[in-house]
Amino acid sequence: MVPSVWAMQRKRDLTTNKVKSHKARLNLHSGKQVYGMNYYKTYAPVVTWFAIRLIITFGIIFQWALRQVDFIMAYPQAPIEEDIYMELPQGIETASGNSKDYVLKLLKNIYGQKQAGRVWNSHLIEKLASIGFHPSLIDGCVFYHGDVIFMVYVDDLSLIHISEPTRLRRI
């Protein structure tokens, strides 16, 4: 059984710096080691800084369109690998009044889970391949298809559209 923790944030207006909303997200408490959990498969590859600088430099020189995308709630989109049970979060009450007698079975990955980044990366790579994207031979987090290049960094994605008729060869 894995402990849970609330992650709280305040969103501010950029012009006035006043708090405009509050955000709460339930996470696994990653700071605690839990007996029986597999923490050996946690590595999630990310694009190298060299590849980012190189592709952005090409984009500037050749005036290609560059966009950045942040996947919202990326980790819960990937299928969970194993059964994980989490303690009820603080502040949740049960009908019997004793919340220590109950647990939650996770149906999706959530933030704070040690394997979530790797599972999300595998899921994303599988989906990109299914729509025709190919990984670069130099950097496994750079994908291309036709005149589009994707660079994957955890749950962020930068993409470039090549505006010239030149197509990419396998690099």
Task: Write structural notes for this entry.
With 171 residues, the protein is an alpha+beta fold. It is built from 2 helices and 9 strands, in the order E-E-H-E-E-E-H-E-E-E-E. The chain has helices at 49-62, 116-130, and strands at 4-12, 19-28, 65-70, 85-87, 103-105, 134-135, 142-145, 148-153, 156-161. The protein has a 5-stranded antiparallel beta sheet, with helices on one face. Strands 1-2 form a two-stranded antiparallel ribbon. Strands 4-5 form a two-stranded antiparallel sheet. Strand 1 (4-12) and strand 2 form a beta hairpin. The longest helix is centred in the last third of the chain and has 15 residues, at 116-130. The chain is globular and about 65 Å long. The mean pLDDT is 84.
Write the layout of secondary structure elements.
Blueprint (H helix, E strand, L loop, with lengths): L3 E9 L6 E10 L20 H14 L2 E6 L14 E3 L15 E3 L10 H15 L3 E2 L6 E4 L2 E6 L2 E6 L10
